[in-house]
Automatic annotation (TrEMBL):
It comes from the Bacteria. Keywords: Membrane, Transmembrane, Transmembrane helix. This is Flp pilus assembly protein TadB. The chain crosses the membrane at residues 20-39, 51-71, 125-144, 150-168. It comes from Streptomyces griseomycini.
Amino acid sequence: MSGSAGEARVGAGRTSTVGILLAVLLAAALAGFLLGAVVGEDEVDVPQGLLFAAVSLLLGLGATAGAWWWIRRRAAQFGLSASRYLRVGRRVQRGELPEDSAEFPAAIDIVARQRRTLDTQQRRWVRWVTGAAALLWLVSAVIQILAARYGYACFQLLVACGFLVNPLTARRQRRRLDAVEQALHDHRTPRGTP
């Protein structure tokens, strides 16, 4: 690959990352503003909305900085850049092996972490707590509908759906993870060895 093509690809990756980051932070600020402006009394409270937007933005920036620090630290352990480590993680999530053999140790680590996460989510008490939380949010949404507070009801229905999505996607994640683990095992095992 020529130097200019590689530089253009890296520059495009940084631009898209910055764009995604700004979109997430803008969405957090907008959600904070809307939440602050409509929560409370019957009238719209703009100063409270601005305060909630600022708090949401600061929390979003803090979470982003912490996540970026953690990813850079993990990637450095395998001699990869943060963007390359994230690319390996995305490939593993899709059920694909990395193309470069230097990325295999990182892929093995990512697979082990994802397996631990899935195993934790499959524990009986986690499923009960998740189901109870979804049920409470659904009951709260019904109460809000009966009280004619439809905005709050929509918010609570979205949160309840958030609790219900994870168990529904766990089976697909487990299948993909099994496929990657098998492919990694086949890749590490020399040909002709059981």
